[in-house]
Protein 1
Amino acid sequence: MTVSRMSTLFLRTLREDPADAELPGHKLLVRAGYVRRAAPGVYSWLPLGLRVLRKVEGIVREEMDAIGAQELAFPALLPREPYEATGRWTDYGDNLFRLVDRKGADMLLGPTHEEMFTLAVKDLYSSYKDLPLSLYQIQTKYRDEARPRAGLLRGREFVMKDSYSFDVDDAGLEAAYQRHREAYIRIFDKLGFDYVIVKATSGAMGGSASEEFLAVSPDGEDTFVRCEESGYAANVEAVVVPQAGPVPADVVAATPAACEVETPDTPTIDTLVAVLNEKRPRTDGRAWTAHDTLKNVVVALVHPDGHRELLAIGLPGDRQVDMKRLEAQVAPAEIDDATDADFARHPELVRGYIGPAALGLRGEGEEQTGVRYLLDPSIAEGSAWATGANKPGFHVVDLVHGRDFIADGTVQAAEVRDGDPSPDGKGVLRAARGIEMGHIFQLGRKYAEALGLKVLDENGKLVTVTMGSYGIGVSRAVAAIAESNHDDAGLIWPRNVSPADVHVVATGKDAAIFDAAAGMAESLSGEGIDVIYDDRPKVSPGVKFKDAEIIGVPTIVVVGRGLADGVVEIKDRRSGERREVRVDAVVAEVLAEVREH
Amino acid sequence: MTVSRMSTLFLRTLREDPADAELPGHKLLVRAGYVRRAAPGVYSWLPLGLRVLRKVEGIVREEMDAIGAQELAFPALLPREPYEATGRWTDYGDNLFRLVDRKGADMLLGPTHEEMFTLAVKDLYSSYKDLPLSLYQIQTKYRDEARPRAGLLRGREFVMKDSYSFDVDDAGLEAAYQRHREAYIRIFDKLGFDYVIVKATSGAMGGSASEEFLAVSPDGEDTFVRCEESGYAANVEAVVVPQAGPVPADVVAATPAACEVETPDTPTIDTLVAVLNEKRPRTDGRAWTAHDTLKNVVVALVHPDGHRELLAIGLPGDRQVDMKRLEAQVAPAEIDDATDADFARHPELVRGYIGPAALGLRGEGEEQTGVRYLLDPSIAEGSAWATGANKPGFHVVDLVHGRDFIADGTVQAAEVRDGDPSPDGKGVLRAARGIEMGHIFQLGRKYAEALGLKVLDENGKLVTVTMGSYGIGVSRAVAAIAESNHDDAGLIWPRNVSPADVHVVATGKDAAIFDAAAGMAESLSGEGIDVIYDDRPKVSPGVKFKDAEIIGVPTIVVVGRGLADGVVEIKDRRSGERREVRVDAVVAEVLAEVREH
């Protein structure tokens, strides 16, 4: 293997945090000379960064090969037609990089390759005997993210492993899904960060069963919940809150008729609750709380074809709408704030006082021109609410769902909170944040149908193939590893993915020291391990130590004054533990450390 | 290493040539299941193709590492600004894939990465002590070729190794250039096709000394010439024909005055020569030949900024203008046919009878509104010509260069022909065709100046860095190897790049045969070599043999009826030689064959 000499290695460590970095791991990747930003969300890989990337690729490749998946490589520059056939040319919206070639043909930069894999199998295969089949690629992908952030975690150009399984029936798909799931567990066990497997939604991809592998991180963009009691775990986007059971009939019968209350100056739920407690105390003796109010939130849905529609969501006043959860429900439409112009088109919506009576597409014989109205599943049939009266300065109390108002359906859009009951009824949810590192799901027949991928079954009948789709963010994994493996002094690479196995530092000016250190570096390299050797003649020991710490190779060997007494120091970067070792034992000691792993 | 079973390998061989393939090697790459076209000039790599591509990458990487070049990876999606600073945003013309991101920022897909490498070095380095430096990447590049053709040979998405050297002075650049040249020789020696190293032009890249590595192939797009006597070799675009010496003064003095001749119905040089020989025989007793006529060819130059200009080229009537040679001279402008509209703007040009008198920017005090006029260097000062008289039906004879007309300069645009004298005066040129596989050149300071890459020299003075640029077409190399290594039955991979070391074929229906063949495949794989094993139970021996031939692995082992007698057959794919080998010796024999290489 190689010896990389610091005197020539294309690397400069930075003392200052880069302006474009937010997360601690990403700051260190830039400061330690692993990556540099080329454009928003677009990164260059410097020599050490590229080595880590390749090691992650190698781990992923090994496990994909082990489950019999076959590697190939599709282009990133793709024709429009297949993506038109599946609807994704439009559904991907602004996230798709589109371009026009010199002949005027529409092309795109592939965000994922379902279409290309489906067409390749259609091209080559025709019989159930050809299946099952799993194919994969490790390839550069493109998505024009609205808010590229957090360095490599959400880039616009990124490396991804995507694989696809092809089966004749659902049992085959289930088996392929499980094989991938197990391979992913082996991969993520090797990568060196904590992760959880959670239920997921499938977003714009279509399909059914779906799980995500999330790296647990307070800086993650995803929120997930886990129930210790039952083992339930899900991305909050995928949590399905059960529908609250109906209120008993006698309770409903005892609820007074709905009644308007003058509520001036109640711009917030809190002020509304205060006014109600003062002017219209509850008949049951409890005080009004935010949870007794029904908040109606209006947003705009922007459909891929550009059509804009308002949507009202009714939920208890003590909950917020979780826009990411809502987006997962309405995809491929996107969510936008409702604007003054939107409200102008709907004069029935009295801002600050919107109530159910003005909402919903239903109507009694009238045209359905209202705003679609969806309720949170916690709003039980028969429950009574304080809510807007659709006129300025007025709310209404004792408005009963099913008696005084109905909605067009329910929606899973309210925030899910730490401490909420688990949807399986078996305990309490705990919330944490994570970074999506892998996603596996049973895509089903959506793409095969759109692109006509059929094979002859045992009876000579054409059947549509069912597919699974499985992704790992390879460049993102480098970032996740960095976020999970660092301290104040720098990065601390897990041995599996470290850019080198050992970092040899020669200190002082004594030629004997440099000779001995160079000899060790060569001996170690001759044993098949990668070495960084700090041979810089005029750099102080302090700077060399700092550089070794920030670069983060797991084993550091310091050759210095001790050499005169026949000893060198071996330092463990993670534990900080140092020990002195006889010069003639150092190669064996380091090899043992590298190989024990 | 792996055993790839034909029963599951994602591969189907085709009997028919694909409609989109022109060249024999490319047809075979498609028919044997190595690549598939995804869009014009854009290819997908199927499993076996990807293996060959990776092996070529490995050979290139090994030799680049050996000369101390350091690998990194730049993005393909790049911001406009650096390419604007060097002028290439415009100069690349329609060959550049441009796109606009969701925020309206101009971006491009990198055709080569001079700008990015230059900026990276500027970012990290600041002193002469940091140099010399060589960096490289093996990366996917994009060019929107006007005529993507010949499969992988000229793709719009392709894999390239590009490297760059950085030095403080010309001697350093020269040394870096030589190191790359030697590495390239080692690489191309390993790749398995005949190649030549020829002088080259640097095209739109700027720079000076420049050589190309061409794979010799009758299907190549490039024409090169070689002089056996002197060793001179050049791409025809780079041939510099010496300026012909002046005609002796006494000869010029003896040339009669120019004289118009009525030459109706002379649409071609041949008809003109015939008419002249009939109506106006030469005074020196020789017959008129095409070589005595001065042909004036008018083309349109389209500059990167869209400006369109006419250009007239004067050359002997027995030569054609070589448009590629001309393009190399006028780059970054492109050549277009002169249109009726172009001629309409220049009424002085009488089509079919254009002569020097109507050409040239010069004028006597008048405005310079003429068409720029450049002469072939074979047009000697003092030589006399038959040429157009600028009026319909008339030519002029005895028009003497320097006496009766002058031009605006010379141009290296005439075709170079087999048998032409070598420009070094030492023999005769022989012409052949080739495929550009590598290009090395001394770029100089163009990019460093445009982007401000300076370092402090030994005296603390800022000096501009000088650069070299070196490219190898990696995916193109796969195609060139295929073009050079095949027969009627299929591909014949050199062992270095073969997708597998050995192809084991089990024939018949006997379980013992399949067991023995599977055992051999496993044993060989256990010895560290890659095996394709044809285990398909219901496929005839004939089809299996045909598949093995077209796939082209260098060693084929056939396990069949001979097994009963304890023998199997080893076939050399290239020579066709077969021999019987004892079953218990086959693994050792195959290993010897693989390793002797």
Protein 2
Amino acid sequence: MIIKKKTNWFKMLFEWNGSVLPQLLPRLLLLLLFSLAVVCFKPFLLEHNLHINPAAFTLFGITLAIFLGFRNNVSYDRFWEGRKLWGALLNDTRSLARQSISLINDKEYETKRDEFTNLLIAFVYSLKHQLRHTDSEEDLKRLLENEFAESLKEVRYKPIIILRELGNWIKKAKADGKIDSVTQLAFEENLNKLSDIVGGCERIASTPIPYTYSVLLHRTVYIYCFMLPFGFVETLGWITPFIIVFIAYTFVALEAIADELEDPFGKQPNDLALDTMAEMIENTLLELNDKKINPLKTNSDYYIT
Amino acid sequence: MIIKKKTNWFKMLFEWNGSVLPQLLPRLLLLLLFSLAVVCFKPFLLEHNLHINPAAFTLFGITLAIFLGFRNNVSYDRFWEGRKLWGALLNDTRSLARQSISLINDKEYETKRDEFTNLLIAFVYSLKHQLRHTDSEEDLKRLLENEFAESLKEVRYKPIIILRELGNWIKKAKADGKIDSVTQLAFEENLNKLSDIVGGCERIASTPIPYTYSVLLHRTVYIYCFMLPFGFVETLGWITPFIIVFIAYTFVALEAIADELEDPFGKQPNDLALDTMAEMIENTLLELNDKKINPLKTNSDYYIT
Amino acid sequence: MIIKKKTNWFKMLFEWNGSVLPQLLPRLLLLLLFSLAVVCFKPFLLEHNLHINPAAFTLFGITLAIFLGFRNNVSYDRFWEGRKLWGALLNDTRSLARQSISLINDKEYETKRDEFTNLLIAFVYSLKHQLRHTDSEEDLKRLLENEFAESLKEVRYKPIIILRELGNWIKKAKADGKIDSVTQLAFEENLNKLSDIVGGCERIASTPIPYTYSVLLHRTVYIYCFMLPFGFVETLGWITPFIIVFIAYTFVALEAIADELEDPFGKQPNDLALDTMAEMIENTLLELNDKKINPLKTNSDYYIT
Amino acid sequence: MIIKKKTNWFKMLFEWNGSVLPQLLPRLLLLLLFSLAVVCFKPFLLEHNLHINPAAFTLFGITLAIFLGFRNNVSYDRFWEGRKLWGALLNDTRSLARQSISLINDKEYETKRDEFTNLLIAFVYSLKHQLRHTDSEEDLKRLLENEFAESLKEVRYKPIIILRELGNWIKKAKADGKIDSVTQLAFEENLNKLSDIVGGCERIASTPIPYTYSVLLHRTVYIYCFMLPFGFVETLGWITPFIIVFIAYTFVALEAIADELEDPFGKQPNDLALDTMAEMIENTLLELNDKKINPLKTNSDYYIT
Amino acid sequence: MIIKKKTNWFKMLFEWNGSVLPQLLPRLLLLLLFSLAVVCFKPFLLEHNLHINPAAFTLFGITLAIFLGFRNNVSYDRFWEGRKLWGALLNDTRSLARQSISLINDKEYETKRDEFTNLLIAFVYSLKHQLRHTDSEEDLKRLLENEFAESLKEVRYKPIIILRELGNWIKKAKADGKIDSVTQLAFEENLNKLSDIVGGCERIASTPIPYTYSVLLHRTVYIYCFMLPFGFVETLGWITPFIIVFIAYTFVALEAIADELEDPFGKQPNDLALDTMAEMIENTLLELNDKKINPLKTNSDYYIT
């Protein structure tokens, strides 16, 4: 996602990169040309009674705004729920890493602890790759034992299998007599939360807003915009097409943003910064284990640290 | 539910399958004919003062939009809550399957573990069948011991009895000395969550939006649409009936979508893909137990995997 | 609450029972007569400048719609929260009944278990009677030991005392050595949830929407409707009074529905089907204890099973 | 808070006590006089072009309604969250009182149990007094041991210190060998919830809606109302000032209600009935301990029991 | 954040400090001059048909209000979520401090307990400094042992490392035989909640509302305001520019408030009073440990105590 430093209110009016304007420009130009054509044919259209009552436009425009507001709301909620799930991922992996330190009272366990932390980090990366349909091989090889990384290649729900491995690590600690059932439960609760996070992300990724909604609103927004010139043809001076394009811009841009936010795990400019977040989780878990950490590699423009 | 690959913005305008348009077409044609009739009788209607002030229409149309927005919101919330419950079903069955592995430290338990997993899968399918009022016999026979499957035939709340069986499986593991009370509690918590999921689904399925709301809005939407021609009869040129149908389409289509989403467990095109979800849960639970899994049978158009 | 089978879109327009129309009819007729009177006195009113700018009506009508939308939202939230609480009641009583089976490993406990289940069922009925201010004596006698049922007569917060009894049943099981502290905790958590449910229902029942809101909106809606004729008197042909009544119907009906839903535990047609829900909980708990159950007595029109 | 018995729809129109009308009357009269003055100076104003386009009023009025709707929502949410917190207070104190009975298996503990219950009741009253900035001395003396009540005088966060005392009571029970760590945890969880309730109430009481919002909306509402006459001066007959006052009433009254609900723990007529709720909690806790209870002292008009 | 004592409704109209007006004044003056210029050039503009249909303005203004309402909602939710997180911080630190008293039965532990409390207070301050990007050195030196405070200098995620230290304090108490696993779990749960709070605050601070939204709305609001004069040029008397500025003020001020609330942890006048809250938490924790506390240093204008 794109995050800019605050500029003053005046410069912000001419912001270019942070907006969906570039992508919408061709459509808006088309509308501008169309409106200008309507201005040219004004006498013909008025003569043949081919204009529309502007009252119909007010009525319909506001109706459209209400429905678009609904779509907007739903998309933003999905975006924010996705963000919350990744926030919970940060919290729970931190809690688990902390518990591996303060609940296991054994100095020899330090190397084993690194194994646990690496499993946690691998869990995060494998979730990221699953959500983006990218290849997790490189990251998993870097973090896991060769054999286990290899066996994961064929696995469809990788984060779940890594989660099982985390459970097994704790099982072993119990078998070694380092923890009792009660302490195992403390870990177990956080593992359950990780399971909820995986499922939550899968839910958002696999179930978009019902397609019918998207089609209905998309269609209505564009038909509406291209009918606007007929509504204002009577009063249409040479300045009006620009107003029409401005009105259309707001409707069309909101629909476009809502469409981008709908799938927050994608790679469009307004989607979540999964790369930075994964790297940040890796850093904070390493710091908890007294490892040295580097500054975030990924562009600091994309995430406020 | 119908999920399409993203097409470009222009093609999306002419989408046919993903919309409720086909089902609404007859009604909209009726409205078109009615509007055209009003155009024909324009002089007669104006003479007898049988037209309506357009201000009344703006006022009322926006009011209607606000109320329809409310209905829409509520329906979508039900849809999304249904989806969340099935997401939680995935998470909790996964957690239980993982716990049956990492909380029971006994190699001999492997065959018994398959029994547990099968109970979980049977639980999912029986819930699906209960919500859709379909016959669960085939699925239960495939997954459960013959005797138990047979005894379930007469049972009214099947998922609850399967849940009791899951509880008994854990009870036996405790009686066998494989787990203690504390560990039993860890299972128990997830069983409680499954109980909440069953009840949550039953709640949505058994309690629709108060019928009075539906009647009121349905009635208002249609009466409104069929009165629209009287509002625009004064300015009604030959182009206006098409505008009226376009406005009506938005209102009527939104009402239709809201009506479909209200019961998310049905089999209408916009309802939840329970079949795919049940199959997906089966797959991920089997994978957790190191079983080979097949690609999803159900049409991949209906669920993004 | 009234639940009808889906009829087709056309028949639904003429639905009578499922709507609040019957109750509102006298008021709407009054408004119709009033509007017709305004039509008759049109010349007099215009002469004395006793009509109102229609712009004021558009402005005010939409404002009213927004505020009514808020009232509607709040009322529906109360209705749905009430439903959720009764859904949670189902889930938690089922969980407790299941726990009484799978957490207590003793064959002799079977008759005692029935006692526990009966306490749970009595809890449900006593809550229903408290919320509806009806007499719980009959139900409690049917389910509880005579002596205890008798002692409950004088009690003001009956469900809470039954809850204490459930706690004491578990205390006895522990004293008998059937369960340990850990298992007692598992029961205890679900008892806490039952306590939350009682309090939640009492909260909704004892704290309506601030009365000032109701008065303000009620007053505004009716004054608005009876001023409508003055707004349209200029353009008021013989068809307009019917339009006015139609607009008024939507506002007035929404206010009436919101008013009914506000107290979801009442006995008005749109309130929750507490009778059926209590009976359903009784059935599912009995089935869990391998008892035979009968079909629901209460009219299946009122609850989808 | 004011709760009235339902009257019929007609009488409700003339409700006086349950509304904020009395408090607003002077301002509305001022507006009426102002409007009448505008009617008198109509020719002068029109001549000097000192009237305003009514379109600006429609636009702005609806905008204002949307923003006021937001303010309203937020205020009501605070009111309802406050109510939920006091509902949770009821639930958790009941749960703790029940646990003091069913988790401690010792007949001698009965007098000590009364001490515990009194601490719970004192907790409730001290929270009430803290939220209302009233003196808790009398209530604390009535309920607590003299010495402890005396020491609380100097304490700033009284409920928290009482909470610590509750924790110490349980600590003593454990030291006496009446409960083990596991049972202590069951109490501890409910104490944590009480801590959350105190903090939640403090949060609502200490952090009002950002003052800038209140100022902005207050200012806009009143300026808007006093500009209304200029918008309708052209069409302003002798009936219009009354319409203007009616429109203004709705806006101004909603702002006033929102302002009252914002701080739900105050003593204004629409605030929460903390007195009755505290008394009700005292009653139900005493009944749980088999004490006789009296009917609620506080006016039954204020709380539905 | 600025909190004022309630003034009467009339004085509130002229409030200056509590509003964003000062900051917006230059822009509004610019708009006023621009509007006056339009009034001067009225004949020229009308002649060349350079005015805009006012219907377009009504339509667009309401649309804008709906979208601005959405932005507003989201910003306020972030503000309130931030407040809730700091409220939870208060609750959980209080709970932990109480547990360090009532769960550890040892008189000698009193000095160690102060260490624990100081760690909690240091946790709060370090979170505050992290969120505000200020230097925590002074506060940490005051509260922690020199050596540990020194080692924290290099640490990036300070609150997390202090949290680990809290975990280690409990680990030590267990190693000393003061508590068992079960009691450790009770602490552990509250530590998990602290971890959630840190992550929640980081989430809000690091992920603003998608920048595209802000740009789109900012741009639309200002362009809209500067086009208003062209919409009212036809009816534009000398009074209208003031109306236009008044309308613009509402839109622009709401956008400005929403922009301030978006990042609730900043130091703008409407942001959260983190300083006072941190000081208040310190006070209440010290009081729990029977220390004397001073009145809040920070200006009581900023927080209601």
